[in-house]
Design brief:
single chain; mainly alpha; about 120 residues
Length: about 120
C-alpha cells in the first residue's frame, strides 16, 4: 500500500445533517418570551402523544436523503490516473458541483471542439 491519500469529494449538502437538533441537546429558551407564552396559554395547550412522538422522530439526527437528480440514472465506474482524478475533484470542489456534472461538461467541451476541427 502507498501512503498517498485518495482525493475526496467535498459534500454538496454541507452541514444539512446538523440542522436537526440532537435529542440530548437542551433546547434554547428565550427568557423574555416565556412569560408572554404562559400568559397566552401556550404552555397549557395539550398536545396528543402521537404528535409528540412525531416531533421527536423529526428531531433525530440523520443525514438528508440523497436523491439522483438531473436525469442521471446510469451508473458509471472507471479507473483513472491519479492526476486526472485530482483534476476532476478539484473542479467539482472548486465550483461546488457534482462529479457527474464535471464529466458531462468535459464531454460537451470535447464534442464542441471535435466538431469545429
Amino acid at each position: 500500500m502507498t501512503d498517498e491519500v485518495k482525493p475526496q469529494r467535498r459534500s454538496l449538502t454541507g452541514g444539512l445533517g446538523a440542522i436537526r437538533n440532537d435529542p440530548a441537546e437542551a433546547p434554547e429558551r428565550d427568557v423574555a418570551l416565556s412569560p408572554a407564552a404562559v400568559r397566552a396559554g401556550f404552555d397549557t395547550v395539550p398536545v396528543p402523544m402521537a404528535e409528540v412522538e412525531q416531533l421527536r422522530a423529526n428531531q433525530t439526527p440523520q443525514l438528508p436523503r440523497r436523491t439522483r437528480g438531473a436525469g442521471r440514472s446510469v451508473p458509471f465506474s472507471l479507473k483513472l490516473r491519479p492526476d486526472t482524478l485530482e483534476y476532476i475533484y478539484s473542479i467539482a470542489n472548486g465550483r461546488n458541483i457534482p462529479l457527474a456534472q464535471v464529466i458531462e461538461e468535459l464531454v460537451d467541451a470535447h464534442m464542441r471542439s471535435s466538431q469545429q476541427g
